[in-house]
Amino acid sequence: MRRCLVTLALCAALVPMAPAFAQQSTTAITVPAPLQSAIDGAWRKPADVARDKYRHPGQTLTFFGVQPHDTVIEITPGSGWYSAILAPYLKTEGQYIAAVVDPAAVAEKSRAYQQKSKDSLEAFYKSDAAHYGKAKIISYAPATPSFGPANSADVVLTFRNVHNWRMADNAEAMFKGFFAVLKSGGTLGVVEHRAKGEVADGDESGYVGETQVIALATAAGFKLEGKSEINANPRDTKDYPGGVWTLPPTNSHDKADDAKYQAIGESDRMTLRFVKP
């Protein structure tokens, strides 16, 4: 399998500890030197680097098996936090593709926001052509998402997006789109705010049940290959009036409570690796 071309140490660490999947701890993951070099790059924004302690990019990308020669599609990369690592890492042998919402494919009230997001990402890539010049941006329609030619990508990555798709009632379509664009043996890597259990369809807390994410991927045809606690945070009580956005980095809370929420840190997150058979 293509995924087992990762370092021998990592492949050895991925021997299943349960019949259906491998459980991976943070300390067991050795980050390859080329990936660590991209993470240590001086081009990254200081504010982004400060969040490494919560997002663990080296361990996360290694767990997902991302390799320098891969074609990697990141879904709605926001301001480009992971772009600043992945685009330079993949620029020589691979390809980094950012998939963003097509402003023309959404309701008029949302078009300005989506256009601003797309324009901002394009400007970010153009600001440092030496590192991001090979990055590509593709647009997709949320209701009928297509992320490129069928069987063309090695890895699809999504970070903290599933709750939005569930609220928009297009999560099933998104996962089907991921399945279609991936090659056989390709990887879908998902990081998401983890609820205490399953949440209702109309839930707006920003958290999602781990079993619910697994069910979405399985229904689309994926097999769960691995789970990790890399991005877990046991201090997250998940019971805030403002939902997950109460916590950093959004910090939607009273200034008087800042110390309390900074002590908690960013959300408790599931980290799931799926494979397309």
Walk me through the topology.
Elements: H1 8-13, E1 22-24, H2 33-39, H3 46-49, H4 52-55, H5 57-63, E2 71-75, H6 83-90, E3 95-101, H7 108-126, H8 129-132, E4 136-140, E5 153-159, H9 162-167, H10 171-181, E6 182-193, H11 210-220, E7 223-228, H12 258-264, E8 269-275
Parallel strand pairs: 1-7, 2-3, 2-5, 3-4, 5-6
Antiparallel strand pairs: 6-8, 7-8
Helix pairs in contact: 2-6, 10-11
Helix/strand/pairing category:
alpha/beta
CATH class: Alpha Beta
Number of helices: 12
**SSE order in H/E notation?**
HEHHHHEHEHHEEHHEHEHE
Q: Mean pLDDT, as a whole number?
A: 92
Gross CATH architecture? 3-Layer(aba) Sandwich
- CATH superfamily heading: Vaccinia Virus protein VP39
- Bin the helical content: 25-40%
Radius of gyration: 18 Å
Number of strand segments: 8
- Structural domain count: 1
| Beta-strand content bin | 15-25%
Q: Write down the CATH topology.
A: Rossmann fold
Brief account:
By secondary structure, the protein is an alpha/beta fold. It has helices spanning 8-13, 33-39, 46-49, 52-55, 57-63, 83-90, 108-126, 129-132, 162-167, 171-181, 210-220, 258-264; strands at residues 22-24, 71-75, 95-101, 136-140, 153-159, 182-193, 223-228, 269-275.
What do these coordinates show?
- It is a single chain.
- The protein has 277 residues and is α/β, with parallel strands linked by helices.
- It has a single domain (2-275), classed as Vaccinia Virus protein VP39 (Rossmann fold), CATH 3.40.50.
- Helices cover 34% and strands 19% of the residues.
- An 8-stranded mixed beta sheet has the order 1-7-8-6-5-2-3-4.
- Helix 6 links the parallel strand 2 and strand 3.
- The termini are close together.
